[in-house]
Amino acid sequence: MNKILATWLIASISIAVLAQNASTPSLQRKVQGQTINSNELPSANLTFSKEFHYVGGQAVNLYGNADAEQHLFVKGAESGPVQAFYWVQFEHFLPTNKMTYDYDFNLSTEIGGLKFIYDVKSFPDYAGMQAEDPRSDGAALAHLLSRHSLAFPKRAARIRMFHLPTSDRRTELMIIYGEAVPDGSQIPVGKEGIRLDGAFPEAADTLLDHARQNLTIRRH
Predict the structure, then answer these.
(1) Which of 28, 47, 102, 173 could bridge across to 163 with cysteines, CB 3.0–4.6 Å?
(2) pTM given for the model
C-alpha cells in the first residue's frame, strides 16, 4: 500500500466515524477499573483480568440501522499491534426498522449465567479486514485504537460471542476476544481465513478457554 492510498484510507475511516458519532447517544455503561457496569440489556458486570487495560469506549451508529456502544480492553504493546483484546459491544436495532439478530451458530457457552452462541475463526490479516468498510463497527474500533497509537493484530484468531437478552432478538451483547497468532502456533491460519469451530475444534476450544480465563460476568 503506497503512502497516498494509506493516507486516504485513514482519512476515510476518520470521517466516517466522526459522522457516525455525531448522531449517536452518549455511553450508557460505566467503566470502573477493570469492570464494565451495565444496568440493562443485560444487567450485569463484566470484569477483565489486570493483564488487560481499558483503552476507551464510544457510541457509533451502524449504517443507520442500529446504535452500538463499544468498549475495548487490550493486552500487550504500548504502541502498535496489541497481543490480545476484548471488544465488547452493546447493540440494538433502531425503531425505524424491524430487523432482528439471527445467527446460524451451533455452539453455545455460558458465562456468569448468560448464554452465548459463538463462532471461531482465524485470519491472515485481521487488522486489514476491519478497515475494509469505513462504516463498520470494526473500522470504528480500529479508529479508537489508532487514537491511542495501537492497532489490531495482523495474523490473528478471534471468537465472537453473542448474548440476546430479549425475546424479540433486537438487542444483543457481543463480546469478541482476539489474539495474535505467531508463526509456529498450533492455531492454523489460511490465506482466506479458517472457520476453526468447524474444521479445527481443538483450536476453537483453545480460543474459548482463553476468552473465559480473563473474563468474569456477574448478573445483577
Answers:
(1) 173
(2) 0.88
